[in-house]
Specification:
- This protein has about 80 residues and is an alpha+beta fold.
- The chain has one domain.
- About 35% of the residues lie in helices and about 35% in strands.
- Strands 1-2-4-3 form a 4-stranded antiparallel β-sheet, covered by helices on one side.
- Strand 3 and strand 4 form a beta hairpin.
- The longest helix is centred in the N-terminal third of the chain and has 16 residues.
Length: about 80
């Protein structure tokens, strides 16, 4: 049986393939997550909302030239 770390890694890899860039997942709290990249990716929000559908709700997005893109979501 896979543990939570393995499942997180598998999800990161799957989302990275869909987004076309490396995506890191940070667990911010109960049912709250940040998806981040090391470069600006204006399509990341679209890829994530398409992937998760109604299972996740967008809480916000920010893109910083020197840091990357951050998409904040929570599970419904």
């Amino acid at each position: 049986m896979t543990n939570a770390t393995d499942r997180k890694t598998m999800l990161q890899n799957e989302i990275s393939k869909i987004a076309g860039c490396n995506v890191e997942i940070t667990i911010r709290g109960d049912r709250k997550f940040t998806f981040s990249t090391d470069r600006v990716d204006h399509d990341l929000e679209f890829h994530l909302t398409s992937y998760f559908g109604k299972a996740m709700v967008l809480d916000g997005e920010s893109a910083i030239d020197d840091c990357g893109t951050f998409v904040y979501m929570r599970a419904t």
